[in-house]
Structures are given as C-alpha cells and as structure tokens.
Write a structure and sequence with these properties.
With 602 residues, the chain is α/β, with parallel strands linked by helices. It has 19 helices and 20 strands. It has a 4-stranded antiparallel β-sheet. A 3-stranded parallel β-sheet has the order 5-13-8, with helices on both faces. A hairpin with a 6-residue loop joins strand 6 and strand 7. Helix 1 packs across helix 3, helix 7 crosses helix 8 and helix 8 packs across helix 9.
C-alpha cells in the first residue's frame, strides 16, 4: 500500500494531525505493515480454503507494558485466550514481543490500550447493529452512550463518535488494502465491512484500566485512565550504527557540560584485536585547517590467542603465571621504529574499540571517549574463535597491569569467605558511596537481599565470593554533586525496603520493593539481640574503631587508602554481614563458627 494513502486516513488531510493520531498507542508503521497485501505464495492461503477474517499476515510487534500492570498478566492473557502457540509472546523487561494478526491486534490488544473506549463502542455496534451499524459509523453516524463522568456532555459524546469513526475508517482502509481477494465493486466493500464486524465482535472487553480515577486530593481529581499496554510498535530491523553511539548515550552532551579529559585513562579491549593502522585510533592535531594525525593511542597490544602454547615453563611458578616474566612473551607492542602490526582479519574488536574511543576528525567521527588510551588484548583468532582459558588469562594480565600502575587499592581480597547465604537473601557488597550495591538492587533479580555498605571504593574485585554476587564501581568521586546524587540514591533504596516492610513478611514483595536488611558501617548489633548473635560476638569480637575513630567517621578516598584502613574496612563489612545473618537469618550460619576465618585486620 502507498504510505501516503494510509497517512491521509491516519493523520488526516489538515495542516496538523488529528488528535487521535497524535496519541494513538498503535504506531503508524504497525497499521502500514498490516495494510500490505500478501507478497508471495507463502503468505497467501492454500487453494480451496476459506480465508479466516483478519488472519492473513502475522506481524512481529512489540508491546510496551505499563509497570503497574506487569508483563506477567499480559502473558497470562495470551495464554487464557489460546494465543500462546501461534503468537509466541516473549517478555523482556517491560516489553512483550508477539507475532499477531490484525484480528488478534484488534480483539485482544486494542482493549488493553487507550483505544479501549472507541473499541468498546465499535464492539457494541458490530454485535448489535451488524454490517449496517458499522457502515453507518463509517459514514459518520455514531451515537455513543453517555458515561458517568460529571463533565460528560453532548460535545464530548460527539467527539467520542468522531474518534470511533476515525478508528473504523482506519481499520477499513487497512483491511481493504490487505485483502485483494475480497472481490470487486460493491460486493468488495460489503466483504471488507464484514471482516471488520467479525474482528470487532470478537473483541475481549473484559479488561479495564490499570487504575481507576484517583480519589479527590485537596479538591483536585486526576481522572486520567491508565491502560496496561502503553504502545504497540513493529519489531523494527536493527543494524550497527557506530556513528550514532555517541549521541545515543548523550556522550556529546556530557563532554560539553563537564570538563572531562579521558587522555589519562586506559581501556582494555578484550576481543579479536584492534587495527593499529586505522586513523581513528590516533591523536590528532586539529589546530590547522587540515587535521593531521599524530601518535597512536593504542598504548600496548598483546596476543593471547592459544596462550597456553605461548607461555613457557620458565614463566610459571608452581603452575602459577609469573606475570612480570610472562608478559613479554605475549606482548606485541611495536617499538617506535617498527612498523605497525598487521590488522586483524576479524574486525569486531576494531569496531568495539571505535565505539569506545575512536576519533577521526576528517570524517567528523568521535567515539564515547575520543582521547582515551586503548589496550589491545587479542583473544579471538582470524576466524573469530578462541578459548575460555585465553580470555581468563588476558583478564588476569589486565589485573596485573592495573596493580602495577596503582589503579586499585593496596588490599585486594580474591577469595574472602564472606558470611553469606547460598539462596536469598544475597549479600551485595558496596554501597552508598560506590553505588555498587545500589545499582544491583534496582534489578528485580535481588528482591531478597541485604546490603553491606563499606563506605570505601573498590576493595573487592567484581565476581563471586563463595556463591555471592559482588559488584562495584571502578572509582568514586568526592565532589559535592556526587555526594548529593548518592544521597538521593540512598534515599531511594531505603524507600524500596520500607515498601516491602509495609506489605508484611509473607509472599513476594510488591513490584519495586525489596525485602531484607540494610547494613552500613555505623550499624550496631549489640550482643543481647539473640543467642546466635551472642555466639557471633563471642567468636568474633567487634572491632569498629580505626586509628582512634569509628570507621563510619573515617574519610575514605578511592586511591588513597592505606593498607591498614583497607583491612579494617573489609573486616568491618565481614563482621556486619555475619552479625546481620546471626540476628535475622541464624540458620544460614554454620553451627560451628570456628570454621569461619575472618579477613586479616592488622
């Protein structure tokens, strides 16, 4: 179908779009997709079979679901209506992808959108008036029933009638173009109307808005209805667009607003390798009319493909890699007088590096951080394949380089046996200043958790500690803006726990709520709380003081923590985690506490 023809029906012929088009939850491209007739024999019905009304042409659509309603209820609706097998709905976050026919869109999805009122009137017209009633509505003769609204009037009812006429004319045009098999002339028009009647008569109008109008608050009434499905769009094809990545995440705006210089930061790209000859990975002199490339920003490069063959026995100590001796055997960084390394055959690593740190003034291309230093760790071969050990070894090498550069605090715990549960609640280490646990606690994956806020940066490596997920930021800032933002984030986290407490201890917590224990450095667990807590105090005396001050009062800066303070903070977090379990979940601690070894504090 010609896009302009449908556009005239959808948007109207006036200088501005009609109101219903502007706020239509089903986007124009969805109607256009359904309006296209079958383009091949595979799309058409087999010979000799009667085409079911509205069943031709499934379209892959994405339904955006309102959070209060929940995708689970939308999926239950598909199941109860017997649509699961054919529509194949799949949920991800607050979106549901489903393959729908036009009839299924009209009868099962539109009643869940803000078009529900118009669909309800059209449904009653089809059921009570049949073809004649729908034909009259197409001609603009619609009588809509009065509502219980205080401000309902004749003008409002006439407006609702025009909305119904607009929707019916839109559906009529879509069906008319999608069904060339419905004959010619007057018979065709009656057949198209018959398809509309069938669709609308099948509409399931049982589901109402998510939330009825709010009660009057301070003499102001919010009468807006909120429907389960916010929007319906086509599942549009996606292609790589490196040049748009920067604008998409607003990196260009951040660079203009903040004085950010990433030239002193290094970023490791663990992939198939970076093309060192590509001009996007150079520094550039832009002070002249014609930009001039300077030195490369690829600081170092390493080849970890099939790394087991590259590491000789003399760089191993008891089977462990001595990285000071091993790095030269895998490093491929050319000296200044040597030519650049040949580019990798597989270009994936080059594309990733371009998104992260590309800069090519001649083409006006800038990556996310256009001045950042890049470290090339090649773990995938020319065919894009590799092995897990090569990747793990490359990550260990990155860690060694970071430690040598002083990028991490002086104390690193790799295998600390934190007191924890192997099932909910989970222990998230980090907290209000690092935003470490705060980020994870936003995920519905951690509905049952307690948060241990150490008030220090990066003391634990990301990974798993005794089956406990641990997350962290790379660093934290001490600016006033950052402190204010983390204060707001902390308030939001506390609100999540308060909502779950108000809902009671049984069943799943409400959506967005979190059930668990919030723990910070200043949290007090006096020994009289329970027998288990008394045993914890007896086995591991509390040591909340460092250098004459409570640890909650000791100022911490990410890269200036002395080893003693680091150990004190880690020990404090370990102790608080165990005390919280002893008071609230004693069954999750071992009967013999002597089996637990605390991190060293001295």
């Amino acid at each position: 179908m010609d896009r302009a023809d449908l556009s005239a029906v959808f948007y109207g012929d006036g200088p501005v779009p009609v109101l219903w088009a502007t706020y239509c939850p089903v986007h124009f491209d969805v109607w256009l997709a359904f309006a296209r007739p079958p383009s091949s024999r595979e799309d058409a019905e087999p010979p000799g079979t009667a085409a079911r009304a509205g069943e031709r042409g499934r379209q892959d659509l994405i339904l955006a679901i309102r959070e209060e309603f929940g995708v689970e209820r939308v999926l239950e609706r598909f199941q109860s209506r017997g649509l699961t097998e054919e529509c194949r709905p799949i949920a991800a976050g607050s979106f549901v992808a489903a393959q729908l026919t036009l009839k299924e869109l009209v009868s099962d999805v539109l009643p869940l959108t803000s078009l529900a009122g118009a669909v309800r009137v059209a449904h009653e017209l089809a059921r009570n008036g049949g073809t004649e009633g729908v034909e009259a509505a197409l001609a603009g003769h619609v009588r809509t029933p009065a509502t219980s609204e205080i401000h309902d009037s004749m003008e409002r009812r006439q407006e609702r009638g025009r909305h119904v006429t607009w929707l019916l004319r839109l559906l009529h045009r879509v069906v008319r173009n999608a069904r060339p098999d419905l004959g010619r002339g007057d018979a065709r028009e009656r057949a198209v109307t018959g398809v509309l009647v069938d669709m609308l008569d099948a509409a399931d109008m049982d589901t109402g808005p998510v939330r009825r109008p709010h009660p009057t608050v301070q003499r102001v009434a919010d009468r807006r209805q909120k429907y389960p499905v916010v929007s319906v769009t086509t599942n549009r094809p996606a292609t790589g667009a490196v040049v748009r990545s920067r604008r998409t995440i607003k990196a260009d705006a951040a660079e203009q607003v903040f004085s950010v210089d990433t030239a002193s930061i290094g970023w490791a790209v663990v992939d198939s390798g970076i093309d060192p000859r590509h001009p996007a990975f150079h520094d550039w002199d832009t002070t002249r009319p014609t930009p001039r490339p300077l030195a490369t920003r690829i600081a170092r490069s390493f080849d970890f493909t099939r790394v087991r063959e590259k590491l000789s026995a003399d760089v191993l100590t008891g089977g462990l890699v001595n990285w000071a001796a091993a790095l030269p055997s895998v490093e491929t960084t050319p000296s200044p007088e040597q030519p650049a390394r040949p580019p990798p055959v597989d270009q994936h690593g080059t594309h990733i590096a371009g998104i992260i740190g590309g800069w090519w003034p001649e083409l006006d291309f800038r990556g996310i951080c256009p001045h950042i230093r890049l470290y090339d760790f090649r773990v995938l071969d020319d065919d894009g394949g590799g092995d897990e050990f090569s990747i793990v070894t490359a990550l260990q090498a990155i860690r060694h380089i970071n430690e040598q550069a002083g990028a991490f605090p002086p104390v690193v715990l790799d295998k600390a046996a934190f007191p924890c549960a192997t099932h909910p609640p989970a222990l998230l280490d980090g907290g209000t200043y690092d935003n470490t646990g705060l980020e994870a606690i936003d995920s519905d994956r951690y509905r049952h958790t307690f948060l241990c806020a150490l008030n220090a940066g990066g003391l634990l490596r990301p990974g798993v500690y005794g089956r406990v997920p641990v997350v962290r930021d790379l660093a934290r800032a001490n600016s006033l803006l950052y402190r204010q933002s983390t204060g707001l984030r902390t308030h939001a986290v506390v609100e999540r726990f308060e909502r779950a407490r108000a809902a009671g201890p049984d069943g799943e917590p409400p959506r967005g709520a979190r059930r668990g224990i919030l723990v910070q450095l200043s949290t007090a667990f006096p020994p009289g709380g329970s027998d288990a807590l008394w045993r914890w105090h007896a086995a591991f005396p509390e040591q909340p003081v460092h250098d004459g001050r409570h640890l909650a009062l000791v100022p911490t800066v990410f890269d200036r923590l002395d080893p003693g303070l680091c150990r004190a903070l880690v020990h404090r977090g370990w102790w608080l985690g165990g005390a919280a379990l002893a008071l609230h979940h004693p069954g999750l601690l071992p009967d013999d506490l002597t089996l637990m070894l605390p991190p060293p504090r001295g």
